[in-house]
UniProtKB/TrEMBL annotation:
Annotated Ig-like domain residues: 90-189
Protein name per its UniProtKB record: Soluble interferon alpha/beta receptor OPG204
Key word Ubl conjugation present: no
GO BP annotations, alphabetical order: symbiont-mediated suppression of host type I interferon-mediated signaling pathway
Organism of derivation: Anopheles maculatus
Function (record text): Counteracts the antiviral effects of host IFN-alpha/beta and key IFN-inducible proteins involved in viral RNA degradation suxh as host OAS1. Acts as a soluble IFN-alpha receptor and thus inhibits the interaction between host IFN-alpha and its receptor.
PROSITE patterns noted in UniProt: IG_LIKE
Superkingdom: Eukaryota
Annotated keywords: Disulfide bond, Early protein, Glycoprotein, Host-virus interaction, Immunoglobulin domain, Inhibition of host innate immune response by virus, Inhibition of host interferon signaling pathway by virus, Interferon antiviral system evasion, Membrane, Transmembrane, Transmembrane helix, Viral immunoevasion
Assembly information from the UniProt record: Interacts with host IFNA1.
Transmembrane residue ranges: 207-227
PANTHER family with a match to the protein in the record: INTERLEUKIN-1 RECEPTOR FAMILY MEMBER, X-LINKED INTERLEUKIN-1 RECEPTOR ACCESSORY PROTEIN-LIKE 2
Length: 255
């Protein structure tokens, strides 16, 4: 039995793809498919997230896709199905995606390949992550690699997790997959980059200068107004004291 995990949420069979739903296609033909298009059907044990076939046929060859869509976004995942008697080299089933991460944050990469069944009893499959410097592999520091398998070991994958990104982590990484059936290695590359700091343009700088100048002018005017108000109140108090003293002197002379 061959399983193709196309979608990440349960989908209902349909012939169109309206908003808030997901759809499966084979060579741009919507699911469900007739026998002359594909023998794949939905797999209930995987909550209808997977399509499967108990016996592959020539008409199953082609490009399968799943589209998940809501009112604002759409995500498309594609898988190409090919048939061959013997697997000569590992075939990628998931390529790692480039990431842009800030210092102190975490990052995780994943790679996967179909390696098939091993033909020799002492043959093994291997999958390793390395950080590349001048095209030379080095161990990834402060990281954790977890290898996984599925489809009875015919598909192998690996997660590379870096919990605390530092400046020395930035650069190119390589996921290397080696199958015991072949001497040829499969190399999948990915790039980890820092978040770019946006430079201030001349226009933005001019606006910033004008705003700061306006704020400074407002502060100067406010300071002058406060000083004038305080001075006026001080002068008024002096005038009141002088008037009171003058009245007191006149009353004393009259007595």
């Amino acid at each position: 039995m061959i399983l193709l995990p196309l979608c990440t949420k349960p989908l209902a069979p349909q012939t169109s793809c309206p908003p808030l739903c997901g759809c499966r296609f084979k060579n741009n033909k919507p699911h469900p498919w007739s026998k002359d298009v594909s023998s794949f059907i939905v797999y209930p044990e995987a909550a209808n997230q997977t399509i499967y076939s108990t016996r592959l046929e020539e008409n199953d060859i082609g490009n399968y896709s799943c589209i998940l869509r809501n009112e604002t976004h759409a995500i498309k995942h594609e898988i190409e199905l090919r048939l061959q008697d013997k697997l000569d080299n590992p075939m990628p089933t998931f390529r790692p995606k480039d990431l842009v991460v800030s210092v102190g944050e975490s990052a995780r990469f994943y790679c996967e390949a179909f390696v098939g069944n091993l033909y020799l009893p002492d043959a093994t499959n291997e999958i390793v992550w390395n950080q590349m410097f001048d095209d030379h592999p080095h161990n990834v520091t402060d990281s954790m690699q977890v290898n996984v398998t599925r489809e009875e070991g015919q598909i192998i994958g690996s997660y590379l997790s870096i919990p605390n990104i530092q400046t020395h982590h930035y650069g190119r990484y390589r996921c290397q997959i080696v199958s015991g059936n072949s001497a040829q290695k499969l190399n999948l590359s990915v790039l980890l980059s820092p978040v770019e700091v946006t430079a201030i343009t001349d226009t933005q700088l001019s606006v910033l200068v004008y705003v700061m100048a306006a704020l400074l002018l407002v502060l100067v005017i406010l300071f002058a107004w406060i000083c004038r108000t305080v001075q006026q109140r001080t002068n008024n108090k002096k005038d009141n004291r002088c008037s009171a003293q003058f009245i007191a002197n006149n009353e004393h002379e009259n007595v």
